[in-house]
Amino acid sequence: MLVGYARVSSTDQDLTVQRDRLGGCEKLFEEKASGTEAARPQLQACLDYVREGDTLVITRLDRLARSTLHLCQVADLLARKGVHLQVLDQQVDTHTPTGRMLFGMLAVIAQFETELRAERQREGIAKAKRAGVHFGRTKALTPEQAEELRALRADGVTLAALRQRYGIGKTAVYRYLAAQDEAAPPPQPQRRCLPITQAAQGQPPPSGGQRWLRQAVATARG
Known about the structure:
The protein has nine helices and five strands. By secondary structure, the protein is α/β, with parallel strands linked by helices. It folds into two domains: 126 residues, Rossmann fold; 41 residues. A five-stranded mixed sheet has the order 2-1-3-4-5, with helices on one face. α5 crosses α7.
């Protein structure tokens, strides 16, 4: 029995090409997951499904395993279950001694190419950093826009209007507003001055209730 396994790395990619090439398989397992992920439910289901005498068919070696070690582990599992492996692009078929030899050689070459790509990527990132390229999330607003946002909020503009104006989320709006509060100097305590007559006599100022009562009495007498 021919059992196929097709995989793409992300949900944006299409499985149509692999489906067409694996059209002769009686059973097909499909998956959208990165090759570096250890958890691939459909691959595990495929390996559990195959039985002695079956042939697992894939389009390329990198569709099956995430590393040379993983590929060797899968190959060992298939060998113990009496299942053959067929790779269409590399024309590998473990039914034959030559196919088994090519399988081992291609596994090493595939790992070598993966390591070369990773090394080139690291070198490219290091070169870009030396050139001043910034990696990571950029700020949504310039300092001038952030200041304008705070001024509009102080004038009473609603959060919804600010979000729509600058195209940012509620959390970002609060973050910019909080940045103003952190930058503002702490308020200074206010000193209350005694009326001149009371200050001269060394008397404390009247409380709010006493002041209101005296004003009421003075008004009534007047």
